[in-house]
Amino acid sequence: MVNVKGKWALVTGANRGIGYRIAKFMASKGCNLILHSRSLEHTAEILAEVRAMGVEAYDVAAELSDISQVEAMMNEIEERGKPVDILFNDAAVQIAYRTDYYKTPAEDYTKSFVINTIAPMMLCYRFIPKMIERGWGRVINTTSGIRNEPEQAGYSASKAALDKVTSDLAGKLDGTDVCINLADPGWCRTDLGGPNAPNDPDSVIPGIVVGAFVDDKKSGRWLGAQDFAGLTLEEAIQKAAAFPQLFK
User: Fold this and answer.
1) Which family is annotated (predicted)?
2) Percentage of the chain surpassing pLDDT 70?
3) What's the number of domains the chain is made of?
4) Beta strands in the chain (DSSP E)
5) Domain span at residue 216?
6) pLDDT tens track for 29-59
7) How would residue 186 be classed by pLDDT, with cut points 50, 70 and 90?
């Protein structure tokens, strides 16, 4: 199992929902944190909480629909001189649920793709080469298991695109100690998932983070967090090792 104590993890969307739980869990393992949200006001609470757990942490802000802000955030992170060892691309947007889906506007796609596909990949493209130079790194891109719901076409299509570019990149990294995998939290009662979702957001632990801890140099797995609900991290790691790679 990977020891993340003293490493640095960037968590996008760290102020609430799944990202909040990722940040708290990683802090519990001694991992230092870079906490992203749209505004520093949003990360004040989680920043205080993880620092109280004894790890180093700071927060950054960027609106992911504005790639210039994403670029500025990445520059700030690099200027601070702390390596991004682990990248959790968790932040995402679900524009609308279109009951009359034949009237889905183009903007549902354009905004969804910028936030849910392009921004995460810009982060990957910036930080993965530096992970390769250092000889170690982990990337977990949060995906979705939505199927057969044209009501959410912009969201589901953008996540399917993220799956594709992630699995393609995984084929280039496989066998190295820089690993990229996908994690699906399942339908959870978060701001994005809504109050009618069947899963408590706490159920994503440890499955949503297990890709950061598996140490077999394999990339391209699709890890459904609900498949690991109730397991210890050690049990989750053993189970994750059996999951197939998407690009094979």
Assistant:
1) Belongs to the short-chain dehydrogenases/reductases (SDR) family.
2) 98
3) 1
4) 8-11, 32-37, 57-61, 86-89, 137-142, 178-184, 222-224
5) 8-242
6) 999 999 999 999 999 999 999 999 999 999 9
7) confident
Dist. CA 149–CA 160, nearest whole Å: 13
**What rounded mean pLDDT belongs to the chain?**
95
Angle at CA of residue 191, ends 18 and 123, nearest 5°: 50
Task: Give the pairing of strands 178-184 and 137-142.
Answer: parallel
DSSP 3-state assignment of 159?
helix
Answer whether residue 172 is part of any domain: yes
42-46, long-range: CB within 8 Å, 24+ apart, which pairs? 42/15, 42/16, 43/14, 43/15, 45/15, 46/14, 46/15, 46/20
Q: Is 247 part of any domain?
A: no
Dig out the tokens for 191 from the structure. Answer: 């701001």
173 in a domain, yes or no? yes
The closest alpha carbon to 1, from 237, 240, 243, 246, belongs to: 237
Q: For the sheet with 178-184, list strands across it.
A: 57-61, 32-37, 8-11, 86-89, 137-142, 178-184, 222-224
Q: What is the pLDDT of residue 145?
A: 87
- CATH number, domain at 132? 3.40.50.720
The Cα 221–Cα 225 span in angstroms is 12
C-alpha distance from residue 184 to each of 17, 232, 238, 242 (Å): 13, 18, 18, 16
Does 2 reside within a domain? no
